Amino acid sequence: MACRSCGSGNEAKFVAEMMIHFSFSGLKDLDKPGIPVFPKLAVCLACGFAAFTISEAALRPLTEGTRHSV
Predict the structure, then answer these.
(1) In terms of Cα–Cα distance, which of 47, 50, 28 is closest to 39?
(2) The domain containing residue 52 runs over which residues?
């Protein structure tokens, strides 16, 4: 697949570990627990552009958390 940024076909797939926090208004929400996610990353080895997709199971608590915070 071609990179969405530079068009290169030099892309690699990785698994990442990430913690997503609900901090919509500065430091106010930092006491809320984060949601751990393990997305699959597609990284362009030519320009460094990266894109990822979060699983449906990890997306559910993110969706619920944004309903209460926005």
Answers:
(1) 50
(2) 11-69
